[in-house]
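Quick log. Single chain, no ligands specified.
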Amino acid sequence: MTEKEMLQKNIEEFARLQKYMVLTQDKESAAYKEMKGRYIELKVILTASGINLTELDVIKE
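-> predicted structure:
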């Protein structure tokens, strides 16, 4: 997998994950906490890769 393909995959996962987080009613549930952990991981990966998350990050946590 090329670097470009990996970045695209991570961006798509980041966007999809945020949709699920927004739909989750219970922010204290185990599922939400797991999603938030992955959200933080992806945010770090994308930021370190030079991706500007200003437009992509709807959660902003």
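The mean pLDDT is 95.
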